[in-house]
Amino acid sequence: MRRYIYVYMTNIFSNVPLTLLVLEQVPPTGDHLSLVLYLAFITTIAGNLTLFGSVANLIVAQKALTSSLQHKFDFWTYLKFGFLTTILLSLVGTLIIYGLLRVIH
After folding, report:
1. What is the DSSP string of 38-96?
2. What pLDDT was estimated at residue 44?
3. Residue 34 to residues 19, 89, 95, 102, 105: CA-CA distances in angstroms?
4. Quick check: 92 pLDDT over 90?
5. Distance between CA 56 and CA 47 in Å, rounded?
6. At what angle do helices 33-45 and 75-104 cross, to 10 degrees?
7. Is the pLDDT of residue 16 over 80?
8. I need a surface site. Which of 1, 8, 53, 96 has the fewest CB within 10 A?
9. Distances, alpha carbon 84 to alpha carbons 7, 8, 34, 35, 88, in Å
10. Exposure string (b/e) for 45-62, b if CB count within 10 Å is 16 or more?
């Protein structure tokens, strides 16, 4: 359960500071391999959760607004898609990491 909290924390604290905070508390040793793998995965995809989760999201929103279509992305419109895809990717990624760790161990 704690792992899913990282999805939301990366949108609050940003990816790099959160990763530094977590890895400072848990050194990346063989005992914590699953945490380190999951943290690397989740900090990559968590930027998809909200419009402000990634600078790339803001760039795309700005380009959409200034394009000939003038499509406006607001926070709630983006969240409808970002929330669902982030949750689905989190579940699939967790299963893949779990499967890989079972093969390794």
Report:
1. HHHHHHHHGGGSSGGG-HHHHHHHHHHHHSTT-PPP-HHHHHHHHHHHHHHHHHHHHHH
2. 85
3. 14, 17, 12, 10, 11
4. yes
5. 9
6. 150
7. no
8. 1
9. 12, 13, 24, 23, 6
10. bbbbbbbebbeebeeebe
Residue with the two structure tokens 């419009």: 51
Its pTM surpasses 0.85: no
Report which of 8, 102, 18, 100 is spatially closest to residue 49, judged by C-alpha positions: 8
The first and second tokens of residue 70, run together, are: 């003038």
Structure tokens at 4: 């899913």
Per-residue pLDDT tens for 51-90? 888 888 889 888 888 888 877 778 898 999 999 999 999 9
